């Protein structure tokens, strides 16, 4: 078989998690918490698992009661008109499936898709599998903010889709209201759609706010906005996410979704519908993760790692030039083996493997895990 993705290896997240397991290292590499979802959610899942009739296919677009809960929550959080659960919300197998379904629905051979780099590792390959051409625009280091003039210059009549991710993986950068307005102005003259990956929407710190594409009408009308319950409820293994888009766009996403996964786990959707009306989890998430950020960043002050500011997400980037002159991939491997802390090399988020001597830590870990990891990191 001739590979359709000959240049793509196994995802860095799998590679580093496997290495961490082999070495018995603390896994600050792949992004997932080492604590469980809120008890109300796990109890709800257990309840629905015991309920007869909750074990067969859910409706293709998602359980109506979950889509209604998503609609209410979206309106309450962003102060926008409630998205129509019947025509504007689709529940997907994580944001991953939503990303793929949107790209498959929108991108035709020869289309260009504008991607800001560093970017989540699936964006480029998923675009190329649709016959699209990713057009990469680098974010400005070290703030990882977009240079909108460069974005403007990269737009062409063939640009079918622009992809943004705020808060940003891996940098934690958060787009401002001004950024969103600028983007709306740039797209006003185009026929491009927007995919706004907002899976870390509730992880923004220091009193700042997340600005959703849903809050800018000129963007919302051309946007697919994605989120993930995996991030917000410490349940990455449940693989439940969703896509909000205007009716005509949602119809196209569902055309793909119905043949990709058809529907999402029924008991998981029921459990999430039970807890979503309670705002406690997402209201407290910024403070929850800010405490972890501050703990981790504070502990690493005593190390030779130079941490970059972390405005959002549960990731922190660090320069390691005082520790080693190695490339980031080699350094990440050695840190895992010799120091017992696994991390992600940031070059994995660049299509050409651009190495800027940066590694990514995930701080979605129990305080004692962070303390133990920091102790080890302070010794190198
Ligand atoms: N987008 C980004 C930016 C992510 O970091 C992730 C999670 N790693 C996803 C999408 C995928 O989310 P999910 O786990 O819900 O599939
Ligand atoms: N999004 C997570 C990360 O960036 C990992 C997801 C995955 O393993 N595919 O670490």
Automatic annotation (TrEMBL):
SUPFAM superfamilies: PLP-dependent transferases
Names of required cofactors: pyridoxal 5'-phosphate
Superkingdom of source: Bacteria
Molecular function GO terms recorded: kynurenine-oxoglutarate transaminase activity; pyridoxal phosphate binding
GO cellular component: cytoplasm
Keywords: Aminotransferase, Pyridoxal phosphate, Transferase
Annotated Aminotransferase class I/classII large domain residues: 26-377
Family classification: Belongs to the class-I pyridoxal-phosphate-dependent aminotransferase family.
Entry protein name: Aminotransferase class I/II-fold pyridoxal phosphate-dependent enzyme
Organism field: Hymenobacter aquaticus
